[in-house]
């Protein structure tokens, strides 16, 4: 892949790609039709804060320089935003990982668009990795589910 493409990403992913700590895998899709997906975001039940770019941060963006629990992550998924195309599957996965999801998280739903960045969809489940370009904010394409 052309290194100039890497310059389009937030600094933490851009740095990891340019330093060859991570690479995009064969599942990467750069051009695709918009599709509907779901994401869990951190919000208390009574928190009415509008959806914003912070709701789409990757683990790498949340943990400075891609460091998580003292280790540099070499998995490209660590640098992407995680979504699901199947709501029930997302709820099952999130309930297993985060007990009490209803008290601390809300589910948002909207359209994943290639103008915001490439994605990867693996056929064995409905999970989507979405790597947002620097400066892209997909929040206007998503709504909080009731």
Automatic annotation (TrEMBL):
Domain of life: Archaea
Full protein name: Uncharacterized protein
Organism: Methanolapillus africanus
